[in-house]
TrEMBL record:
It comes from Aureococcus anophagefferens (Harmful bloom alga). PANTHER family: EEF1A LYSINE METHYLTRANSFERASE 4 (PTHR12176:SF80), SAM-DEPENDENT METHYLTRANSFERASE SUPERFAMILY PROTEIN (PTHR12176). GO terms for biological process: methylation. This is Methyltransferase. One of its GO terms (molecular function) is methyltransferase activity. The keyword GTP-binding does not apply. Coiled coil: none annotated. Residues 1-18 form the signal peptide. Keywords: Methyltransferase, Signal, Transferase. It comes from the Eukaryota.
C-alpha cells in the first residue's frame, strides 16, 4: 500500500534534511584548486618555469626586494631557535639559504621548481654548506615533504611568481596561492611560522592564508605581521625592505 506524502516525509531520517543543507553548502564552497597549466609568454612572463630557468642559466646571483641581511633581524625575532627546521621555497639565486646556514640554522631545506634555480642555489651555497642543506627541485603547489616537516618557512617573491602563473585568469591565479597556503599548512607544524615578502600579489596572498581552512573547517593560519611597518627590538626597520612583509603562525 502506498504511503501518503506526509507520512513519507515524517518517515525520512532527520539527516536527510541535513544532507540537503550540506549539498547547498558544498555548491557554495569553491571547488578544490588544481595546478594550472603553464601560461603563454604573452599572458605572463614571470609565471613561467621556462622564464626562471632562462634567468638562472645567465645570472649567478640576485635578491628580489632585499638581501638576507636586511631581513635577518626580523627572521631571528620570529625564529630564534637555530635547531628549527626551515624551508625556503623558490630559493633561486638568492642567498637566503646561505644566510640561514651562516646564522647557525642546522636544518635547512631549499627548493625551486626551476632546476636551474636549484643549481644556482647549490653554487651559491658552495660544497661545504650544500652538503648540509636539503636542496630539491619542487613545486610550492605540491611539496614533496612530509606532514609537519617544518617549524618555519621563509619565502620572498615565490608566492608572487606563483600568483602570476595563473596568467590573466585571476581566479585561477588565486587558486595557485590556495594550493600553496594549503601545502604550507600541511608541511608546517602547529605553532610553526611562515614569513613572506611580496609585492605584486600581496593582497591575494594575504587572502589565501586568511581563507585557508583545515579539514575540520578551522582556520589554518593566525596572522602575526600584517604589512604594517615596524621596528624590531634591535632596530631593524621594515621600511628598508622593498616589499610588504606578512607572517603567520600555523594554528
Ligand atoms: C621573484 S623570484 C624570487 C627568488 C628568490 N626567492 C629571491 O628572493 O630573490 C621567484 C622564484 O620563485 C620560483 N617559483 C615560481 N613558481 C614556483 C612554484 N610553483 N614552485 C616553486 N618555485 C616557484 C621561481 O623559479 C623563482 O626562483
Amino acid at each position: 500500500m502506498a504511503l501518503p506524502a506526509a507520512l513519507i516525509l515524517l518517515s525520512l531520517p532527520c539527516s536527510s534534511f541535513g544532507l540537503a543543507a550540506q549539498r547547498r553548502r558544498a555548491v557554495r564552497r569553491r571547488a578544490s584548486p588544481t595546478v594550472a597549466p603553464e601560461p603563454s609568454e604573452a599572458e605572463s612572463r614571470f609565471g613561467r618555469q621556462s622564464y626562471w630557468d632562462g634567468v638562472y642559466a645567465d645570472e649567478a646571483a640576485f635578491s628580489w626586494y632585499c638581501g638576507w641581511a636586511d631581513v635577518e633581524p626580523l627572521w631571528l625575532e620570529l625564529v630564534p631557535d637555530r635547531a628549527a627546521r626551515v624551508l625556503v621555497p623558490g630559493v633561486g639565486n638568492d642567498d637566503a639559504a646561505v644566510g640561514l646556514v651562516d646564522a647557525g640554522f642546522t636544518s635547512v631545506a631549499a627548493s625551486d621548481y626551476a632546476p636551474e634555480g636549484v643549481a644556482r642555489a647549490r653554487a651559491r651555497l658552495g660544497d661545504e654548506r650544500a652538503d648540509r642543506v636539503d636542496l630539491r627541485v619542487a613545486d610550492a603547489r605540491s611539496l614533496p615533504y612530509g606532514d609537519d616537516a617544518f617549524d618555519a618557512v621563509f619565502e620572498k617573491g615565490t608566492l608572487d611568481a606563483v600568483f602570476l602563473s595563473g596568467g590573466r585568469d585571476k581566479a585561477l591565479a588565486y587558486d595557485q596561492l590556495r594550493l600553496c597556503a594549503a601545502e604550507l599548512a600541511r608541511t608546517v607544524r602547529r605553532g610553526g611560522v611562515v614569513l613572506s615578502l611580496s609585492a605584486p600579489a600581496t593582497e591575494p596572498i594575504d587572502r589565501a592564508f586568511r581563507e585557508c581552512r583545515s579539514d575540520g573547517g578551522g582556520r589554518c593560519w593566525k596572522q602575526l605581521i600584517d604589512g604594517d611597518s615596524f621596528v624590531t627590538d634591535d632596530g631593524f626597520a621594515s621600511i628598508n625592505v622593498d616589499a610588504t612583509i606578512l607572517a603567520w603562525e600555523r594554528l
